[in-house]
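User: Sequence in, structure out. Go.
Assistant: Echoing your sequence, followed by the structure tokens.
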Amino acid sequence: MNIDGYRRSVKKFERKWAGMQEDCALLWNKNSNKKKKRKGLFHVEHLRPTVENKGFPSDRGQAKTIAIANQKGGVAKTTTAINLSACLAATGRRVLLVDADPQGNATSGLGVDRDGLDVSVYDLLLGEAQPERVVVSLQIENLDLLPATINLAGAEVELVGMKDREFRLRSALQSLRGRYHYIFIDCPPSLGLLTINALTAADRILIPIQCEYYALEGVGQLLQTVNLVRRRLNPQLELEGVLLTMFDARTNLAIQVVDEVKNYFGDKVFRTVIPRNVRLSEAPSHGKPVIAYDPRSRGAILYQELAQEVIEHEE
């Protein structure tokens, strides 16, 4: 994995990007040019204090729904879904995490036994269970889960012949949106019907990009899919931000990837960069987010920083 090889992949991306800039500009919100000062590291007790209005989670009357998506696997989608959700829940905001990935890693990563579930997101999408029956209350305060099982792997085939197949998740979440401040959807590593459902249900999309070789491969296709969803299914969909993950400061390649991504996406790149971190890797095997597993680890501190950035977007 040398620099020359990476540069070739960047050139390939540039050719795709040239024809997409106008469409991608639609995703930038009106405030994207505002610069914000980077805040120092902090622990969970230094996050925004618990919100006072416990009865109604949002001034807008509905949860802010964010799909975490990238069709490439291994970019820390699930790691981000679990830990960002947990860090926001730690501030007193009520959060629902939707596991829309048949692998069910967000479900097991939060300590839920998939084999012991009677209903899941699969039943929700097929209209065989009400959302209230599927929601799992976790031991983590303010954080709930819509879990996934292996049954979800067959959902795309079953959805193909259904009416309004792209809107199934959006409709299912409607009765829950008034109960939470945030709903996060952990998408599968594909651009099939499950991801389309997530993008149709979401207000925003958060794109994790790993600081590694071929990092930009597939991003062009993802953005084209997002803009197709905007035009045909969900005109309100906007880009929440791009999150750089798996950063290793010891490599020139990682530093160059950061520069390239910031060059393309500008201030839509989160200030927080998530590094490779042992505790982040270990936490799922214990069924805990990293702030519960090791709150003083670098991974925990940085996901708390990311949570603060997301909170800033409310303002």
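User: And one key feature?
Assistant: The radius of gyration is 19 Å.
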